[in-house]
Structure formats: C-alpha cells, structure tokens
Amino acid sequence: MSKTAAVQSTGTGTVQPTGKKPMGQRIKEFFIDFRRQWELQSMIIPGVIFMFIFCYIPIYGLTIAFKNYTVIDTLDSAPWVGFDNFKIILSDKYFWDSVVNTLGISFLKLAIGFVIPIILAIMIYEVGMGRFKKFVQTISYLPHFLSWIVLGGMLITWFSTSGLFNEILLSLGLISQPQNILLDPSKYWWIATLSDIWKEAGWGTILYLAIMAKIDPTYYEAAKIDGASRLRQIWNITLPNMKMIISLNLILTVSGLLGSNLDQTLVLMNSQNREKAEVINSYVYRMGMTQGDFSYATAVGLGVSIISVILLVTANKVTSKLNDNQSVL
C-alpha cells in the first residue's frame, strides 16, 4: 500500500493516517515510553506480581473440577473423571434450589437496589445546604463500613420476637403476637434484598455524585432560562450525563447475578430459612469446606464463572447498542 492510500482527507485540507503501525514499531515505542516513565511503570510491578501469584497461578487448580480430588491427593495425582462432576450438577436438586434462590434475590436487588443509589445521588446533589448534604452523605455511607457480622447481629436482634420490628408492628396493631421474622422462609428474599440496599445504597452514590459534579452548570442555567422545571432538568441534563456510568454499573450488576453475597447469607441463614436462603456461593462453600467435596464444589464454581462471563459480554453488547455503539468496557 502506498503512502497516498494510507491517508484520508479530514475535510479541512489535512490528512491523517488510517493504517495501523507495524508491530515492530509499536513494540519499539512501548519500550521507549517505558524507559521514559520507568519510575511510574515500576510502581505497578508489585501489583503485577501479586496478581500473577494469587490470580493466575491458582487457575491451574480448576483442573480438579475434572478429577476425583480428595485431601490425600495432589493436583497431579488425583484421577481424571472428565465431566462426571458436571453431570452430577445437572441432577442435583439442592444445587438448582440454590440457583432459584440466587436468581430471585439477585433480580430483586437489580430491580430495586440498582435504581435507589441513582435516586439517592440525585437527591443529595440537589440539596442546597452544604452541612446537611454532608450529614446525609455520612449517614448513608456508614453502613458500608460495618461488616456483615455486625449488621447481621443487629438484624437478628431486631427481628427476634422481642426485637424492635415486633415492637413496632405490635404497637401499630399489624400483628397480634410477636414472631421471629428471620425464621420465616417466605420473607427471607426481601430481608436479604432490603438489608443489602441499606448497607450499600449510600456507597453506591459516590460515582454518580462524582459525575454530576463535573456537569457544566451553564446547562442548568440555560434550562432555567427556557423555563424547564427541576424535574425536567434532571431528566434532560443530569441523567443523560450519567448514562455511561449507569451503563457500566448495569453491566457489572448483570454479570454478578449468579454471585450472591456470601457473608450476608452465612450470617442470616439458619436451619428454618435455609430452603430460601441457600445461594450458589453458600452451597459451594458448604460442599467444599464443610463436606470436603472439593471437585464438585470447583465444578459448580467453574460453571458459574463461565455463565457470569457470558452475562458480562451480553450485557456489554446490549448497553453498547443503547449507547450508539459506544462500549463502556
């Protein structure tokens, strides 16, 4: 290809190259840039080493999903069984019960918990009083920094027969006698969803508030001159400028539909609500760590990871179509 064919007109009398640089030239430029910025580049070396040791080397352990591995075996000495562990998964009733629970809780969190941080961020942003805004932000962030051990203990106390919720319901005449709400399996999905929203909604507003802080104020001033109401300004200015970060959070949320909160489940699950509380992560934990069936637990985890990657790619494709073919990943 000639140099003339490798350029195109920009409409202003100038030309720009359209072809990619040769691989050798790109490699040479990479090492030149690395040498020029070696102080900064060397700062990532510990992170790269950490990822290699704890993220890439353990991938070899996934081979036990295709083996009959026991604690007396090594990764190499365990006998191969092919896809037998995956065949057992397909006929395991308890696994599919955990899938139903995981999807039920995850879809509730997606339907409710995804929207609430956006609404809360807009409400905080619209507050004019600086001290009150900081107070609301602090209160909403606080539950995120408490572990599920602490929050779970609080919920167990509040939901007990002599706890806060029963006292409130009795005083309002909504119930005639107290009951332990956490022992009722039919209410667990809502408890898991609402408690997770309570813990993470405030923390989820940080990215949205950062994006809104960068919006040019002249947009709002022009909208006011045109007579736009505050709600119209939010709809036509605030939300469109948040479109990319909303899409990114949606992609990450959809890709994690099969990964429910293990800490929350282990704290709130009991023998009475297990049928509705057991999720895939807790099922894998129970099969692997409690019952010692490491091969089966690894097979379940591997299958879930593959489906999560498929969900991630699919969600990215869908959101890119909605964003004029602009991918956020």
Describe the structure.
It is built from 18 helices and two strands. The chain is mainly α and 329 residues long. The protein has one domain: MetI-like fold (Orthogonal Bundle). The protein has a two-stranded antiparallel sheet with strand order 1-2. α4 crosses α18 and α6 crosses α11.
SSE topology:
Layout (H helix, E strand, L loop, with lengths): L6 E3 L5 E3 L5 H14 L1 H4 L3 H12 L27 H7 L2 H21 L1 H12 L3 H12 L6 H11 L5 H8 L16 H13 L4 H9 L3 H9 L4 H12 L1 H13 L6 H7 L5 H4 L2 H11 L3 H29 L7
Antiparallel strand pairs: 1-2
Strand content: under 5%
Which percent range fits the helix content? 55-70%
Distance between the termini: 33 Å
Total of domains: 1
Order of helices and strands: EEHHHHHHHHHHHHHHHHHH
The number of distinct helices, counting runs of at least 4 residues, comes to 18
Largest sheet: 2 strands, antiparallel
- The CATH class turns out to be Mainly Alpha
Average pLDDT level: 86
CATH topology: MetI-like fold
Spatial arrangement of strands, main beta sheet: 1-2
Shape: flat
Indicate the low-confidence ranges by residue numbers.
1-18
Please state the structural category. Answer: mainly alpha
Radius of gyration: 26 Å
**What is the count of β-strands?**
2
CATH superfamily descriptor: MetI-like
- What CATH architecture label applies? Orthogonal Bundle
Biased composition (Polar residues): 1-17
Main location: membrane
Region (Disordered): 1-21
Family: Belongs to the binding-protein-dependent transport system permease family.
